[in-house]
Design goal:
With 613 residues, this protein is α/β, with parallel strands linked by helices. It starts with a strand and ends in a 7-residue tail after the last strand.
Length: 613
């Protein structure tokens, strides 16, 4: 959907009186952002008053909002009047949406029977009621997420996109169609992976060659939001810095030809002051660091090289000082253009904006800069055993999904934003729908889980059979992360890129660093490699038949930093990545070398902040 307006309304007396009590509204905003990253999202908190609710709905409909989602006021109490207010506004009811919400909610709790959500259309605005709890908002959004884009396109009469979806239902990719993957013949599943085992260098080369084809655009950003972006144009100094001769010290602006001796203190000049009358021989001006030299002055004598001769009776004004040592021309003076000369290059195309460069641009009068756009990244977890980490009670045989939170933060650490697409079940149809929704949202999809050899590992066949994806590789000779998969496909006329990573948290963590971050850097035409250094092992390390990437923390106690391996390196033990600043590149074991002794020097990839220990 093209960028439009989406409204989130929290209906609650309690939240209206104290907005900090509102948890469902902010949660809904994040969910909507993940599905509509280019849209304008507006929020409002209103009391449980039918007239106020009606008026707000009408107001936003008149402003041509594409979608309004209300949260709260759908229960049985006297104050729960959101459904009645919604019915008074809508022109067409959408009962199937309400029924779908009820059916899915009843699967979670019988309490869903006391919710009375209403959905419908007012002019060209879709309105949907959600219950008021954070948990219900998350669950209900997952229900309607697959149809929202298409529903809005129909209401807006976007015939081109509607036709595209209808055409896709005739045999091309459709998020609602049953998957082409046959999961019934479990006994015939492969007993060995059909994908060749690639060496790491080969996998890196494939990622580089494929991702170089991604075509981004150029956008203008305010320098306050420019950190980490790659500059798309060279910028030059529009003025010298400093633009005037400036004092380097606190002291006295003098005429060097006067030499040493007593001077009459004519005035004081502070940073930001201007001084128009030239100094005369035998005069000086008290001056602060950074202040412009008065006309006629050509040097500064620091306070330490002077002596007070006389002052006013109240000691508030110096009258005469003695210059103890004869100054030299331009002593302690920063001349015009000393830091930056007019026309000097400030930043070259392809440079990454860091704090210092942003400071240079701000000082040179640049408020906006053209930068290369970054791919939109979506994160999708897969697995029947996963539940949202916000749920307090852990269901039987379930675990909380940590991968989305971890990968989103890991990408942010490396300078990239992402949107979370929730959890897809290990069912071909559900997986197909979730992948389609993610591909519609993003340029790069990062999936975790479903890529190994189990009967429920369906991601690779769904990609190839339902999306006609090209699998550039499906296995890599590495530990952890052997089943890591990299694919691309055409979706709705655009090339999409998919990194399907193992579901074990450490595998996802390591492979996101090595493959996904690399790919995003390639898209920006910047150096894709992490910096490397040599480190010394603090303990003996048993080698694996595959090259292994080991999480470690550094201690700077010698000429070569010492690397301390973090905990159990099992791929499900995310604790082994906590605090890691490097990945040790361990060689594979062979008949002559099965372990590395303490003190062995190995290469390390620097992936995190280098704290001193």
């Amino acid at each position: 959907m093209a960028a439009g307006i989406i409204i989130i309304i929290t209906v609650s007396d309690t939240c209206y009186k104290n907005p900090t009590n509102d948890t469902s509204g902010p949660t809904l905003v994040e969910l909507v952002k993940s599905l509509f990253p280019q849209s304008t999202i507006q929020t409002n908190i209103i009391p449980d008053e039918r007239k106020i609710i009606e008026d707000k709905l009408k107001e936003y409909c008149m402003k041509n909002a594409d979608l309004i989602i209300t949260t709260g006021g759908t229960g049985f109490s006297n104050r729960d009047v959101t459904p009645e207010a919604t019915r008074a506004v809508i022109e067409k009811e959408a009962p199937a949406i309400s029924v779908a919400l009820t059916i899915e909610s009843l699967k979670k709790t019988p309490m869903a029977m006391v919710s009375r959500s209403v959905s419908g259309i007012c002019d060209k605005t879709l309105i949907i009621n959600f219950p008021g709890s954070k948990k219900a908002v998350i669950e209900c959004f997952e229900v309607v997420k697959p149809i929202l884009h298409h529903a809005i396109e129909i209401i807006k009469n976007d015939t081109k996109k509607v036709k595209s979806v209808h055409d896709s239902m005739q045999g091309h990719v459709c998020p609602h169609k049953i998957s082409s993957v046959d999961v019934t013949k479990v006994a015939l599943r492969p007993r060995e992976s059909p994908y060749p085992m690639l060496e790491m260098t080969e996998a890196f080369n494939i990622v580089d060659s494929v991702m170089k084809k991604w075509v981004g655009t150029v956008q203008q950003v305010n320098i306050e939001n420019g950190l980490g972006y790659v500059v798309a144009e060279s910028l030059y100094a529009k003025e010298p810095m400093p633009p005037f001769p400036a004092s380097i010290k606190d002291g006295y602006a003098c005429i060097s030809s006067d030499g040493a001796g007593v001077r009459r203190v004519r005035a004081a000049v502070s940073a930001g002051d201007s001084f128009d009358l030239p100094l005369q021989p035998g005069e000086c001006a008290r001056i602060n660091t950074g202040a412009p030299l008065p006309p006629g002055a050509d040097c500064v004598v620091q306070v330490e090289d002077t002596k007070l001769i006389s002052a006013t009776p109240d000691n508030e004004t110096e009258l005469e000082v003695e210059i103890l040592t004869a100054p030299k021309p331009q002593q302690d003076v920063r001349p015009i253009g000393f830091d930056i000369t007019l026309g000097d290059p400030l930043v070259t195309e392809g440079a990454v904006l860091d704090a210092a460069l942003l400071g240079v641009l701000a000082g040179a009068g640049y408020q906006n800069v053209r930068v290369r756009t970054r791919p939109v990244v979506a994160i999708l977890s897969t697995g029947n055993e996963l539940q949202d980490p916000s749920e307090v009670t852990l269901k039987p045989a379930h675990i909380r999904d940590s991968n989305q939170t971890m990968l989103k933060a890991l990408l942010k650490e490396q300078g990239y934003t992402s949107v979370c697409m929730g959890v897809a079940r290990d069912e071909a149809g559900a997986l197909r729908a979730s992948v389609a929704a993610a591909l519609r949202t993003a340029d790069v999809l990062v999936c975790t889980g479903g890529v190994s050899m189990g009967e429920k590992d369906l991601l690779k066949p769904v990609l190839t059979q339902d999306f006609d994806a090209t699998l550039h590789f499906g296995r890599v000779r590495m530990k952890p992360g052997k089943p890591s998969t990299f694919a691309s496909c055409q979706f709705e006329g655009k090339t999409k890129y998919i990194f399907a990573l193992p579901g074990n948290p450490v595998s996802a963590y390591v492979c996101c660093l090595l493959f996904v971050i690399r790919a995003l850097r390639v898209c920006e035409h910047r150096n894709a490699e992490f910096p490397r250094m040599r480190v010394r092992l603090t303990k003996q390390f048993q080698l694996d038949p595959r090259p292994e990437y080991v999480r470690a923390v550094l201690k700077f106690t010698d000429d070569i930093p010492s690397a301390e391996v973090l905990g159990n390196q099992c791929s499900s033990r995310l604790l082994s990545a906590c605090g890691a600043s490097v990945l040790l590149e361990m060689p594979p074991a062979d008949k002559d070398l099965r372990c590395l002794a303490a003190g062995t020097v190995v290469p390390a990839i620097i992936t995190g902040r280098m704290d001193l220990n």
